[in-house]
Amino acid sequence: MAHPTQLGFQDAASPVMEELLHFHDHALMIVFLISTLVLYIIVAMVSTKLTNKYILDSQEIEIVWTVLPAVILVLIALPSLRILYLMDEINDPHLTIKAMGHQWYWSYEYTDYEDLGFDSYMIPTQDLTPGQFRLLETDHRMVVPMESPIRVLVSAEDVLHSWAVPSLGVKMDAVPGRLNQTAFIASRPGVFYGQCSEICGANHSFMPIVVEAVPLEHFESWSSLMLEDA
């Protein structure tokens, strides 16, 4: 999860998020190179009194500074499109979960099970135990098996919400009357935090998302316990 003074992204916990981090580094290096070149040209033009007649009127230079930006845009666009298609790809999910946004909590329904669903509320600050995170912990976590494709169906019951977990590279709008879907694979066990990312009213800041990825056998034990309690 994020920590104070952090400048970069959270550590990737899914293959898609790893791809997004690589693309970010790729695009940032291009931006650095362009910025350095432009800064050098500005400093050179301001600091020198010399004039080069070939720069004032040169067909070759105009061709270069027209073609080069086009090539750079292609170098950015191709990997970007690849990741966009990867993020939309949902192949044979092992588990489907429906996440419903409410003012101001989330409810989860495991549609592959007959009666497995619960509401997930933020734990108030005064009820936190040592080691828990303020404004991020919930009374019920969304538990998923690791290394399994998970499909999440996202909708809302009242106003616009957005289901987002940065570590997993997932962000999907929850729209009343519309069912959106996204997918992820948790590549390692852990607890991953997110928050509603669409301003949805007075308590928008107080409807966190907690995804807990566990080994498959632990998930089966958890689901059995939840079904018994239901």
From TrEMBL:
Residues 1-91 form the Cytochrome oxidase subunit II transmembrane region profile domain. Its cofactor is Cu cation. InterPro entries: CcO_II, CcO_II-like_C, CcO_II_C, Copper_CuA, Cupredoxin, Cyt_c_oxidase_su2, Cyt_c_oxidase_su2_TM_dom, Cyt_c_oxidase_su2_TM_sf. It comes from the Eukaryota. The keyword Protease does not apply. GO terms for molecular function: copper ion binding; cytochrome-c oxidase activity; oxidoreductase activity. It catalyses: 4 Fe(II)-[cytochrome c] + O2 + 8 H(+)(in) = 4 Fe(III)-[cytochrome c] + 2 H2O + 4 H(+)(out). Residues 92-225 form the Cytochrome oxidase subunit II copper A binding domain. The chain crosses the membrane at residues 27-51, 63-85. It is a multi-pass membrane protein. GO terms for biological process: ATP synthesis coupled electron transport. Pfam families: COX2, COX2_TM. Keywords: Copper, Electron transport, Magnesium, Membrane, Metal-binding, Mitochondrion, Mitochondrion inner membrane, Respiratory chain, Translocase, Transmembrane, Transmembrane helix, Transport. GO terms for cellular component: mitochondrial inner membrane. PANTHER family: CYTOCHROME C OXIDASE SUBUNIT 2, CYTOCHROME C OXIDASE, SUBUNIT II. Belongs to the cytochrome c oxidase subunit 2 family. This is Cytochrome c oxidase subunit 2. The lineage of its organism: Eukaryota, Metazoa, Chordata, Craniata, Vertebrata. The gene is COX2.
